[in-house]
């Protein structure tokens, strides 16, 4: 793959699903883990349900601890749900886990490659495990090394690879047997901007080839960019689902973000802005930022500044923007995505 940066990537055209085909179907999944030190059990999934059309990229978007990785573990037969149903390529993941494994590829958060083997050796081993003959495994390894721009590094130990190279090798390993469904669990976490852009380009290529991809991510821009449809997950539940454009379009007007000079003035600022005509959905992130919505943000800003000035509230900055996925998350989860991420760390 040739290097890219985010600005150079052209806008992606959403994939058209195979008519009537469903690649993943999940209904009311529940998964509970024992609490720490004998405490109350932790419900990782709370009746989570999704439906993914074949040949599309479906994004599970949510902060750390939302339940995304638990969902992937169940769908890839690495964990069993307490209750609920899940099918991958029409196969029940609990009743027929062996059949499911033959139809899927998995790129987990942790590297799957052996750092003390070469890139080629890792691919050959993965291919043989998947049942390919020696000749077929060698051919497939060569194809994937070329596709992922790893041919020149094929005979180097993986421990000498950069983070981006190692991550591309992980995806190649997941594709070695040409799965119907590929699970990408936080595939760009820890990558530098260039490597992240390269991974985005490869994921888009998978969709162009009609591979079904379930992508978990906590990056808003990644879900916005790549997913044909996405579900925002919070506390083990899907709080809203749809295309990124449709979800943002539901939020009428503009977002106004006011950064106060001090968080101590927040209560007074929220009370005061509640009296400004045309403002709605006024909320605080728990720090020094407050958010509101208005039909015409630029027109509302002078009234916002004047109102806060009359109250003696110091304003550091004001920004106006079109609806974003962060605004969607705020609407449906009741708090900003940034604040949720900070609290989950």
Query: Main beta sheet: strand number and arrangement?
Result: 6 strands, mixed
Distance between the termini: 33 Å
Helix content: 25-40%
CATH A-level architecture of the largest domain: 3-Layer(aba) Sandwich
Q: What would you note in describing this structure?
A:
This protein is of the alpha/beta class. It folds into two domains: 19-248, 3-Layer(aba) Sandwich (Rossmann fold); 252-322, BMC (bacterial microcompartment) domain (Alpha-Beta Plaits), CATH 3.30.70.1710. It has twelve helices and 14 strands. Helix 3 (119-129) packs across helix 4 (134-147), helix 3 packs parallel to helix 5 and helix 9 (266-273) packs across helix 10 (297-311). The relative contact order is 0.14.
Question: What is the fold's blueprint, element by element?
Answer:
Blueprint: E1 22-33, E2 42-53, E3 57-61, H1 68-75, E4 83-88, E5 91-92, H2 97-103, E6 104-107, H3 119-129, H4 134-147, H5 163-175, E7 181-185, H6 193-208, E8 212-217, H7 220-226, E9 229-234, E10 237-242, H8 244-249, E11 254-260, H9 266-273, E12 280-284, E13 289-294, H10 297-311, E14 315-321, H11 325-333, H12 337-344
Parallel strand pairs: 3-8, 3-9, 6-7, 7-8
Antiparallel strand pairs: 1-2, 1-4, 4-5, 9-10, 11-13, 11-14, 12-13
């Amino acid at each position: 793959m040739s290097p890219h940066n985010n600005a150079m990537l052209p806008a992606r055209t959403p994939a058209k699903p195979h008519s009537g085909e469903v690649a993943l179907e999940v209904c009311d999944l529940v998964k509970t883990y024992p609490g720490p030190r004998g405490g109350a059990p932790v419900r990782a999934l709370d009746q989570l349900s999704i439906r993914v059309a074949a040949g599309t990229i479906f994004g599970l978007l949510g902060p750390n601890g939302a339940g995304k990785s638990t969902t992937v573990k169940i769908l890839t037969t690495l964990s069993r749900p307490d209750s609920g149903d899940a099918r991958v390529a029409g196969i029940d993941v609990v009743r027929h886990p062996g059949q499911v494994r033959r139809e899927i590829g998995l790129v987990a958060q942790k590297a799957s490659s052996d750092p003390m083997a070469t890139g080629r050796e890792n691919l050959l081993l993965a291919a043989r495990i998947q049942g390919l003959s020696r000749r077929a495994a060698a051919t497939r390894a060569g194809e994937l090394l070329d596709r992922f721009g790893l041919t020149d590094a094929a005979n180097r130990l993986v421990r000498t690879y950069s983070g981006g190279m190692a991550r591309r090798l992980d995806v190649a390993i997941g594709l070695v047997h040409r799965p119907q469904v590929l699970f990408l669990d936080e595939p760009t976490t820890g990558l530098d901007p260039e490597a992240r852009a390269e991974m985005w380009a490869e994921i888009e290529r998978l969709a162009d080839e009609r591979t079904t991809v379930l992508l978990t991510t906590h990056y808003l821009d990644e879900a916005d960019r790549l997913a044909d449809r996405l579900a925002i997950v919070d506390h083990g539940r899907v709080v809203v689902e749809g295309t990124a454009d449709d979800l943002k379009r539901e939020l009428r007007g503009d977002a106004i973000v006011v950064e106060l000079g001090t968080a101590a003035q927040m209560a007074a600022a929220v009370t005061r802005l509640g009296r400004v005509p045309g403002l709605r959905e006024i909320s605080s992130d728990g720090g020094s930022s407050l958010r509101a919505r208005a039909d015409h943000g630029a027109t509302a800003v002078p009234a916002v500044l004047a109102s806060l000035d009359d109250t003696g509230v110091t304003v550091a900055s004001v920004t106006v923007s079109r609806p974003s996925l962060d605004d969607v998350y705020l609407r449906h989860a009741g708090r900003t995505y940034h604040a949720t991420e900070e609290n989950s760390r």
